[in-house]
Here is the input.
Amino acid sequence: MAETYPTAIVAGLLVAESADDWLTTPRKEIELERTGIVGDRRHHSAAKPAGPRLPWLPKGLLVANLEQVSMIDADSLQGIADEMEIDGDETKATFGEERLVFVARRMGINVVFAAFQGTEKIPSFYDIPNSTHVGRLESGKMAGAVIHIVRYNPACTHPGKRMAKDLIPDATHAQITEMGAQFKAAADLHGRGYVGTPIIETLLTGPLDVAEGDVVSFCSLPSARDYVPRKAGE
Here is the structure.
């Protein structure tokens, strides 16, 4: 019997156009190569300096960059926007963008999934195990771009602080700090998504595209889904 995998629709694609800013800009299509998203100047690289999330390594030590793609589901964005009471009409009037796009951009999101269809083993988006591969399935095999999910992306306060600066004219330090904390609490509750890396070597094929509306599958080994760490002594 053929393996059944969860599926979702690619509902949004975004790229960071500045190396100095994680703010992402919507695109209808992106291209992936082994070192990240083509044109993403923030996270496109084979290596990156070790930072606060790798405290056991010397700061600045060059390590493999496995976090070139930031992914989330639309339900998480909806929950965060609702929790933070980000007004749709006001945001659209101010920035010309729908409120979920407003949130996604300030989170530095690259791929938004919608209409997630789970399975018995993986019923929800946040049941996806690490090392899952995301891509288009054709006749049971992945074709084109494939993203390897490395890990869950823990929430920090920076996106909320950026929202405060963009939403509140002359925002005070207290307002910026408060909205940063609000975002972290909302993202902890509703989910912050995953980070991952493209795994298909594109030296010979050239960049591989992902487009809005693509239906992708989330493929993982049954052993990864069923594994439960054993306690000492068991």
Notes: The two ends are 33 Å apart (CA to CA).
